[in-house]
Amino acid sequence: MTAFKLDIDADGIALITWDMEGRSMNVITMDVIAELSGLVDKVTNDAAIKGAVITSGKKAFCGGADLTMLESMGGIYADKVRQEGEEAAAKYVYEESSKLSQLYRRLEKSGKPWVCALNGTAMGGGFELALACHRRIASDNAKTRLGLPEIKVGLFPGAGGTQRVVRMMMPADALQFLLKGDQLKVDRAKAMKLIDEVVPQDRLIETAKAWIKGGGKGEQPWDVKGYKFPGGLVYSKAGMMTFPPANAIYRRETYDNYPAARAILQVVYEGLQVDIDTALRIESRHFAKILRSPEAAAMIRTLFVNMQDLNKGARRPAGVPPTNIKKVGIIGAGFMGAGIAQVSAAAGLSVVLIDRDQETADKGKAGLHKSLSDRVAKGRMKSAERDSLLEKIATTADYDALKDCDIIVEAVFEDRKVKTDVIKKVAAVIRDDATFASNTSTLPITSLAAEFKEPKRFIGIHFFSPVALMMLVEVIMGKETGDPALAAALDFIRAIRKTPIVVNDTRGFYANRCVLNYIREGHLMLQEGIPAAMIENTARMAGMPVGPLSLNDETALDLGLKIVRATEADLGPEAVDPGMKKLLEDMVEKNQRFGRKNGKGFYDYTPGQPKKLWPGLADLLPKKLTREEIEALDVNELKQRFLVVQAVEAARTFEEHVVTDVREADVGSILGFGFAPFTGGTLSYIDMMGTKKFVELCNRFVKKYGERFTPPKLLIEMAAKGESFHTKFAPKKKAA
User: Fold this and answer.
1) Residue 331's pLDDT is what?
2) pLDDT at 416 exceeding the cut of 90
3) Residue 462 catalytic?
4) Both 333 and 284 in a single domain?
5) C-alpha angle 224/228/231, rounded to 5°?
6) Is 659 in contact with 315 (CB distance < 8 Å)?
7) What's the CA gap between 251 and 258, in Å, rounded?
8) Marked catalytic residue, from 134, 462, 523, 726
9) Cis geometry, peptide bond prior to residue 548 (ω within 30 degrees of 0)
């Protein structure tokens, strides 16, 4: 065996230690399933073995299934469809994907007591193994997290998780746990009855064995005659108070875009009406169906496989030694600068936070203290953690304090003159081997680098707001940026536990080019007379996290107007939409509506109340549709406009070599601006539709709505050949 170790003590208790060779984390693979199957057989059939304890030899118990295994299953399925037909291919997926569920059921019905000794984090299929055991004991490790997060990659627990959880707790609580994919601390998991005991780490195995020696039975409650579901029958008053509201909430939150979420509702609903064995077969059948869905394939590829590649340094230049980053300089103590300081200090780095004077720098740190204190008050952080973080941040107005910094990030006002002044001051003190980064969101890096003494050490590092919550960081290469600067930037981003994408220099880079098209589409719909509420709702129905008007409020309307005017000044009046410019001028200059920051934008923000669309917005618009015209609008077409206008811009950036890696286009679109996650990202959305159909849709929109939907030449050529982005431009994997 290469994944497990077996020791049987004098009392006949088997200790099975999961410790995969050559991996830092235990994961479920076909080899693991085969080895564990052999161990279940041994425990079941060996009369000398009284019971088994399974634990891990690593810091964590299990990270879940190796999703590359499931991804490859999708490829085999497609091949079998072509070679053997749909029925044979579907049968293959069902048989392969149900093996783990069947194994856990054999363990559960072995007649011998099994105890899962959770010494650390257990996710997905690893936690489903724990649920199949007859007792679950966890060590009191504050870092341990337990959960079934499959929904976040377009799947659902398919090894018995949905059926066992709903037999351990009330259906409403079980559905919330399954649909949110929460990761629980051990005390919360115990309160929810998902684990039975929490003990000190040094007593974990001893306690597990003692339960078996004390007469612990190898029988689950749902296999005992007379067992009753915690929430009663589906067709009861309690059931009717659970499932209809759950369905309504599901539709409100997902707009039926996520097949896996729908499947969770269905398998729980159906599974509670039958015995456990039938319920497990129902779960397996739905799991096999979801595994074959385009949404699951796209989400697994983007949100697991590709994101993992990027986090592990897929774009880091080869041959550049690791950068030992210990100290970070940040210029600008405003909202963005303070956020960068926070995540840097949280990663254990020393931070120098600079602003124009000591008072302003201190004010930035004080704001950070307040926001962290709010987290302490809500129980999300300990006061000692807050104090330790803040101690790592030194505030000053003296640029000499940057002399020993390994990397310096400017996060000052989005104004070329202001940034140029900062660049010159930093150039006078920066170390010869340090990297300088600009946190600009739109200004071209190459032109800013021209102000620096060594452009090869100048790079763009574009954080998204709010920095602490947004996982993406966009790294922008200037024309002269060197590999050491890129390596340093990626090492810094990895240190602060963010996901990087690397793009080449252009106005707006990648993320802003796409998302500004989304916001602009909302503005153009307003000018067409489409009601603001309909614009916002259809955008969310399309899968976007917030509507374009709400997003514009968050990013600030006055900033949007400045970007429009800066673009017009640099590229000429034809580069901006006059209607969009006038709308922003009316909002910002005539009505002093800057967005959420001053409580007035497309929405009104009254403290303590939900935001509401501003009633005066309609008076600014050039056109109003009649009720009949509004009822005649094609909602599906409105949804498509929002996604297509972003995806076609992503295709343009790919043609222009702004983005050069399909993984980064997709990951960046979901993490950076919330492009509908169920699609797998902008380029996956095109591939899912098919390039030919996508180009046809673009051309139809061009005739109806304008040139902004024009597909690039690359996309037209791919459509003619029936090519897709993820086959034509599949990235080469780095050698292990």
Assistant:
1) 97
2) no
3) yes
4) no
5) 145
6) no
7) 10
8) 462
9) no
